[in-house]
Amino acid sequence: MRIIAGRHRxxxxxxxxxxxxxxTAERVRQALFDMLWHAPWGGRTTIQDQLxxxxxxxxxxxxxxxxxxxxxxxxxxxxxxxxxxxxxANISACKEDARTAVLVADATRPPRARVPCGLIFLxxxxxxxxxxxxxxxxxxxxxxxxxxxxxxxxxxxxxxDLPAFVPVATRSHGAATLHVLRAP
Length: 184
Known about the structure:
The protein is of the alpha/beta class and about 180 residues long. The chain has a single domain (about 30-180), classed as 3-Layer(aba) Sandwich (Rossmann fold), CATH 3.40.50. About 25% of the residues lie in helices and about 25% in strands. It has helices spanning about 25-40, 60-70, 80-95, 130-140, and strands at about 50-55, 75-80, 100-105, 115-120, 145-155, 165-175, 175-180.
């Protein structure tokens, strides 16, 4: 697994052993960031200079990819110790300690945000209704800026019930579906 583009292009990322952490595949990240960058509703400003939240961060691949492509800062939320070890190693390997914060926190019970984020990544375990629970909790804790873009990865057959968010795009890749939503 590696960073696809930007200043850290080609940087190898580590993942914890076992099946507990499911990093977003390189081809899915490539398709996602191409869509964010080139879609009519997207553009460079969807990533560049944004404050990013990578909830259910795992290895941090999504947030680190955003930083590599020009995001200003990324906060990572993660609770699993093996994933936290890999996440911190990946941040150090990319020399991004100054532009990141790692919070040992559950995205369904997050701490209060200091500043809301304009780009949110959610990549929870599939089939547990965690996207809906996390977005409700993150919104209540001030993490989601008005009109922020939210990218939620879910299982292929997993429907999302998020009436407050405007669907912008949906793309399926293998066993995953990427839902891009606009916050109210």
